[in-house]
Amino acid sequence: MPRSQDFNRLPGAMSERPLLMIPGPIEVSPAVLRAFSRPPPGHGQPFVVKAFGDSLSRMREVWRAGEGAQPFMVAGSGTLAMDMAAVNLLDPGDEALLVDTGYFADRMRLVLEHRGVKVHTVVSPPGERPELEEVEAALDACAAKALFATHVDTSTGVLVDPAGLAALARSRGVLSVFDGVCATGAESFEMSEWGADVYFTASQKAMGLPPGLALFVAGARAMEASRTRRTPCPLYLDWNVWLPIMETHEAGSMSYFATPATNLVVAAEVALDEILSDRLDGLEGVDARIERHARTGRAMRAAWAHMGLGVVPASDAHCANTLSAVRYPAGVDASLVGRIVERGVIVAAGLHPAMADRYFRVGHMGYVTTRPDLLRRTIRAVGDALGAGGCAVDTVGAVDAAMKELGSRAVAV
Ligand SMILES: *Cc1c(COP(=O)(O)O)cnc(C)c1O
Q1: Residue spans in the chain of domains classed CATH 3.40.640.10
Q2: How confident is the model at residue 407 (pLDDT cuts 50, 70, 90)?
Q3: Which numeric CATH code is attached to 3-28+283-406?
Q4: How many angstroms does the Cα of residue 369 sit away from the middle of ligand 1?
Q5: Per-residue pLDDT tens over the stretch 367-379
Q6: Strand partners, 280
Q7: pLDDT tens digits for 322-381?
Q8: For residue range 100-125, what is the model confidence (pLDDT) as tens digits?
Q9: Ligand 1: distance of its center to the CA of 204 in Å?
Q10: Each residue's pLDDT tens digit, 251-291
């Protein structure tokens, strides 16, 4: 059976519901949807315990985590993972350096300030990212215990250089924490090789799951910091309370602290398997998955360029592949988003407070990267909506430009 028909057979068939192309939640694969859509299993049922443990083991591979690293999977959203990183690593009065590339750095600042942490910031204009030299100077000018950066800022589509930032932090004895919520499983991240200390995400973005899980790996230095911190934190946020739960599950047995999101746990094993079993042009697993997103990112950017639309990231070199932040052309305003939605494709409005009314966002991560037909449908909806708003573009040409990139065998470096 053709894959498109497969997809249409799912609950809420394509003909009845719009395509969800926001930067999370995203369309999930049929296998993930099947795993998730079952009567809620008990957390002690052997297949749930196994899925929990196997998911944690698979996270080690997806994160490229090394010796001494500890994966965690906790019911909650990405913001829970942010809170947990802040309270486990830092005491009130500690200092932190924040690399600010947009909206989610502002959220991290709030989270840190809530903990009583003194936050220093290196900021760049929307669409740009601070140079490593600026971050280095800022690190030397403060007594930060940890550096926080957003791998992909979902408000601007800007990708930072986690390898460079982690190396800088390590050279100064500073912990490095990366918000991978719009990146993990889709953009390159070598936790162990780069010496990053914490990398966290949420289920509803590039992991390819429904919302509801915070997933993160803490390296050995971060685990040590969580043990030596002086100030207690709320019980549910405490890594050390969750640690034995993670350890027993990974060892194959059940233990209870707070009820896991069992449907999601079962689906997580499937989603992580899909990442690790991906194949593309001789690449395998995470490498294939990353290349698939790189190709999709280039394809979508080719379509926007063909339509004469600019993107928010100032340079191709730091453009995320998980979403496009596309500027409205002259004479077009935010009403475009509604016209795209009317054409059956849900996209998101701008989010960066300095320029939210000047661009819109299209998520292209996870399952849709395996479905050129859905990408075509998205590009067509944008092109048609522009036309309906009095800004005619060559939609057919834009689709062709994208498909040419998708078919291209060039591997991004
Ligand atoms: C979505 C997102 C978050 C917040 O995650 P929630 O699940 O909404 O709490 C944090 N950081 C980034 C980069 C995100 O994209």
Answers
A1: 38-274
A2: confident
A3: 3.90.1150.10
A4: 20
A5: 999 999 999 999 9
A6: 283
A7: 999 999 999 999 999 999 999 999 999 999 999 999 999 999 999 999 999 999 999 999
A8: 999 999 999 999 999 999 999 999 99
A9: 9
A10: 999 999 999 999 999 999 999 999 999 999 999 999 999 99
Q: How far is the CA of 79 from the centre of ligand 1 (A)?
A: 6
Is residue 83 lining ligand 1, measured as CB closer than 6 Å? Answer: no
Is the CB of residue 77 below 6 angstroms from any atom belonging to ligand 1?
A: yes
Average pLDDT, the chain: 94
Atom of ligand 1 nearest to the CA of 104: 11
Choose the residue to mutate in 156, 179, 216 for probing ligand 1, maximizing ligand atoms within 8 Å of C-beta. Answer: 179
Characterize the bridge pairing of strands 279-280 and 213-218.
unpaired
Q: Report DSSP state, residue 2.
A: -
Residue 102 is inside which H or E element, if any?
none
Q: Which fold has domain 38-274?
A: Aspartate Aminotransferase; domain 2 (3.40.640)
Contact 95, 118 (CB under 8 A): yes
Residue of 181, 182, 199 to test ligand 1 pocket, by largest number of atoms within 8 Å of CB:
181
- Closest residue CA from atom 12 of ligand 1: 181
250 lines ligand 1 (CB under 6 A): no
Residues 6+ apart with CB under 8 A from 92: 115, 116, 117, 231
Report CA torsion sign: 74, 366, 299, 363: negative
| Bridge partners (DSSP) listed for residue 175 | 146
